[in-house]
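ok so I'm stuck.
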Amino acid sequence: MHVSANKLSRTALAAVLAAAVALAPAGVAFAVDGDGSSAGSVSNSDSTAAADKKDVSKARVDAAAADADAAKGESNNGEAPKPVDNPDNSIDDGQTSDNSFLYDASIADLAGADSYYDKQTVQVTGEVVGEAIAVTGDADHAWIVLRDSDTGSTVTVFVRRSDLRKIDTYGTYGTTGTTLRVRGMFNLACSQHEGESDVHAQVVNVVSAGYEHKDVFNIEDFAPGVVALAVGIVLALVFWRMRERSR
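replied:
not stuck anymore, here's the structure
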């Protein structure tokens, strides 16, 4: 009986040891699996961070490339902008004033101008009246007179003879002259032309062509004269009658 108990104890101990040996590989495998999972998480985080850094770097490279293209004059659509001297780019010399160096003045202002306008670039619009006057000793230039139709003020303009071809009509009685827009330097007392006030034209543009207009006979225009004549005749008769009675 005693021997059987010892055998039983040995058998139980052997079973426990066998179970422990059997469970040991599973535990090791679990530990290895756990370590691999943690490493995988760390690896995924590193990959995400690296991808973000790569995107930022690519964005910086793209921005630098865009700046370089802009410096070279290339647009986003691959078309280079037209240079300033491109024939398709035109400048309207007759445009109205829109900046500080160009004064859009009326002829009336220049007629009564002070030193404020002297040596300034001005732009005036008016009807050409009279006729072109030759400049003594200068075959390339001439004088013209511009008139303000609203105020009747005039200004003398020193122009190139080539600009005279733009004038189709000079304003006189029964004729409206060509309307010009002239840009040039105003001289309050021109040192080249005996101290006269004038505008040395730089750009001359036609605003409207001249035309002839016939005077229309209107009987109503004669009505005040007819009335005055009738009153005068009546008064003369009354005076004559009174003198005859006084004799």
